[in-house]
Design brief:
By secondary structure, the protein is an alpha+beta fold. The strands form three sheets. It has a six-stranded antiparallel beta sheet with strand order 6-5-16-13-8-9, with no helix packed on it. 42% of the residues are buried. 17% of the residues lie in helices and 36% in strands. The protein folds into two domains: 124 residues, Probable inorganic polyphosphate/atp-NAD kinase, domain 1 (Rossmann fold, 3-Layer(aba) Sandwich), CATH 3.40.50.10330; 133 residues, Tumour Suppressor Smad4 (Sandwich).
Length: 277
């Protein structure tokens, strides 16, 4: 935790107002359980406009929390509103336990984890360039029955001249337990200062399982035989079809704040996940 560039900075709880002055905005997924929970919380704590809130309480699953973080970025890219999630979905890995009592006090006492997304710059075969941010990961996926052929360059050096696969992804530490884990990629602790580069269903070279890269790395994917083997690129929710080249790097100038109850903070969750049966 000594390297500030690699560490998820944890601002002090005093950066939030005291519980009796805390302005809470409540957002929920479009499910009956989440909507009912929102109604109860709004009745109990009020509901400030998102643009004026000190914190956004997100009710749903991990996917909805990701949507909430992207909305916070869209409203204020320089200072996105902190997000405190409570599980009203299925897995809820990024969410706190749902409890209605003492919510303002829990939020003010929560540990604040700073996350930096990935910036994707995708160039399509027609020359169009599309930029997007990925909080979890940036992934490349084959579009047809034909396997993708990728060339992977890291910091200007070609590290993988040809990878034949269903795709590949670059995951942040926060996203390493999502799609990356499903593709048999490593779980990355938040303070490790690395990104996970993980292939998806590798055909050749058969034994390549991916790499851990410094968080400062700039990764470039060139699509080989793009006409025969079209590939799409996805940064969380933004999909770009028929790409020719995709550049991925951590976006240090953008920071998001997630709030976690101290008794089971996010770093502890990632550590426990590595020993899960």
């Amino acid at each position: 935790m000594t390297d500030p560039a690699a560490s998820p900075a944890q601002p002090p709880a005093s950066s939030l107002p005291p519980p009796d002055a805390l302005r809470i905005a409540v957002a929920c997924a479009d499910t009956e359980e989440a909507r009912a929970a929102r109604t109860r919380l709004v009745h109990r704590y009020g509901n400030a406009p998102a643009e004026q809130a000190d914190v956004i309480v997100a009710l749903g699953g991990d996917g909805f929390l990701l949507e909430t973080l992207h909305r916070a970025l869209a409203r204020n890219r320089e200072r996105p509103t902190p997000v405190y999630g409570m599980n009203r979905g299925s897995v809820g890995f990024l969410l706190n336990a749902y409890r209605e009592e003492d919510l303002a006090e829990r939020i003010v006492a929560a540990q604040q984890v700073r996350l930096h997304p990935l910036r994707m710059v995708a160039t399509r075969v027609n020359g169009e360039r599309v930029e997007a941010l990925g909080i979890n990961e940036v992934s490349l996926l084959r579009e047809t029955r034909q396997a993708a052929k990728l060339r992977i360059t890291v910091d200007g050096v070609v590290r993988m001249p040809e990878l034949i696969c269903d795709g590949a992804l670059v995951a942040t530490p926060a996203g390493s337990t999502a799609y990356n884990l499903s593709a048999h990629g490593p779980i990355v602790p938040l303070n490790a200062g690395v990104l996970a580069l993980t292939p998806i269903s590798t055909f050749r070279p058969r034994r390549w399982r991916g790499a851990l890269l410094p968080h400062t790395a700039k990764i470039t994917f060139d699509i080989l035989e793009e006409a025969k083997r079209p590939v799409s690129a996805v940064a969380d929710f933004t999909e770009v079809r028929e790409v020719l080249c995709v550049e991925v790097a951590e976006c240090r100038e953008v920071g998001l704040t997630l709030l976690f109850d101290p008794e089971l903070n996010f770093e502890e969750r990632i550590l426990k996940e590595q020993f899960a049966p």
